[in-house]
Amino acid sequence: MNFNSGYEKSADIVFKNGVIFNPFTCEWLSEDFAVRDGVILGTGPGYHGKKEIDLKSSHVTPGFIDAHVHIESSLLTPYEYARLVMQHGTTTVIADPHEISNVCGTAGIDYMLNAHGKQPLDILIMLPSCVPATPLDECAMTLTAESLRPFICRDGVIGLGEMMNVPGVLSHDPEVMEKLSLIPIRDGHAPSLTGHALDNYIFSGMQSDHESVILDEGREKLQKGMFLFIREGSTERNLKTLIPLVNACTAARCCFCTDDRHADMLFTDGHIDDCIRKSIDAGCEPEIALRMSTLSPADRFGLFDRGAISPGRIADFCILKDPGRCIVERTYKKGNLVAADQVKPVQSELGGECPFNAKIPSLEDIRIAGSGKARVIRIQEGQIGTRTEYIQLSADDIPDIKRDILKTVVVSRYHPGKPGVGLVSGFGLKQGAIAASVSHDSHNIIAVGTSDDDILKVISKVIRHKGAMAARNDTGEASLPLSVAGLMSELPYEKVHDELFKLHKVTQSSGAVREPFMYLSFLALTVIPEIRITTKGMFDVNTFSHVSIFCEE
């Protein structure tokens, strides 16, 4: 029998003399590889191409894959995002567009799917499972199983995004169960879940998690069969804690994800290549880290057309200057070099309604009255979780700069009305205020500041732009307009980086914690313990109810 019948060894391009990383065996192999029609034809000698490229013993790895990301959190359009991350060796991202879906409904999903086909980066979509994040949250359109169903067969849709409604899963809520039945690949979202509750969550169909922040939590999820996404975002920095769980046996079940990483961190530190470098620094073998960046996420999502330089797989790969440090020299997509200017800026093309009906509050609207034992939101460095602190104080003491207790305000982007007001600690501001229209997941306007006047001024700036990030203090102010749904800038990523630098210059001179806008954006996220702030005031995640600032005696 002729097993080569119909197989033709002639290629479009033969890449010669490369040192190729093989993620199946975690070894480096000196061999040629051939590409035809954007797909790996084969590896080794004997292939002939219309074109040959001598790699001169350069180290070659498959293209990197981000297992879970919200592109909107970069503050860039998907086109500018692609232009930036592809320079760092990323060729595929698994994106959950639930940020833009909260504010634009199904039009937000359409926007991301359209972007998937209009630039070289593969933006593969996990359909948003929780819009709104909870029944108490605001959004432009509630996404039911029925509203998601038409997207199931769309090109680029591969699964159901992070299921944040843990109580709904555990109680087998009919609507939640219907969503889980839509598609076989399902991402979880189960911070601090353990024991029988975790068993129930997995039994109900959840397959992965990116919310582990301590070693034992990640270990239990791995032991019980979940895929573990090790996250390293702008504020959610869990890599150093979790990387000891990764070894030759577990690497197949572990992937890297960035989740929420601002454009400035992408610009200065990188993307998945940054995760690889940090893993190596933390003691992980380089080959294990590379497997986690390529074949592991490909296998997790059933993407058997990528993740390795092997026959039948898409010719996505990158050339490394320094394999020990994972410094990317150039990136190839479907066998073609990705040039820095290849991804062309495209106007937002965002159809549908993205409500922005915010009203600037008055001084009276944000006034606090009372005294006694107060609930204060305490942010935690390097995490998005918060703690409840109970502190004796009077409303007249706010702001309490010495104890770092400041006022935080949330203004609805959807409905004019009275804002929510609370107290927060950990921002470190000594003067001024910051505000943004990025606040997960409803993306209302959120602010924190050292005076009511400063708070109102930065909120006003955000509302006037119909979406922005703004900072001010006694010596200056800065802002970054977010013209796409109040979440993303249409500026080139280089300009966004520059504007973020100006914002951080103001916040640093005000004494703020590193990455204050990212911490600010998570203050309203009602699915992460322990206490939050919404348009209705302070919210206790553990009791799933709004609570007053001052405790009742």
Helical proportion, percent range: 10-25%
Class derived from helix and strand content: alpha/beta
Give the overall average pLDDT: 93
**What overall geometry do the principal axes of the alpha carbons give?**
globular
Verbal overview:
The protein is an alpha/beta fold and 553 residues long. The protein starts with 9 loop residues before the first strand and ends in a 6-residue tail after the last strand. 24% of the residues lie in helices and 28% in strands. The model has no long low-confidence stretch (mean pLDDT 93).
How are the secondary structure elements laid out?
Layout: E1 10-22, E2 27-36, E3 39-43, E4 48-54, E5 59-62, E6 64-69, H1 78-85, E7 90-95, H2 98-104, H3 106-116, E8 122-127, H4 145-148, E9 157-163, H5 166-170, H6 174-180, E10 186-188, H7 195-203, E11 208-209, H8 215-223, E12 227-231, H9 239-242, E13 254-257, H10 263-268, H11 272-281, H12 286-293, H13 295-300, E14 317-322, E15 327-333, E16 336-337, E17 371-379, E18 386-394, E19 405-411, E20 420-425, E21 433-436, E22 445-449, H14 452-464, E23 468-472, E24 477-481, H15 493-509, H16 516-522, E25 531-534, E26 537-540, E27 545-547
Parallel strand pairs: 1-4, 1-5, 6-7, 7-8, 8-9, 9-10, 11-12, 12-13, 17-20
Antiparallel strand pairs: 1-2, 2-3, 5-14, 14-15, 15-16, 17-18, 19-20, 19-22, 21-22, 21-23, 23-24, 25-26, 26-27
Helix pairs in contact: 2-3, 11-12
Characteristic terms for this protein:
eight-stranded mixed β-sheet, alpha/beta, about 550 residues, single chain
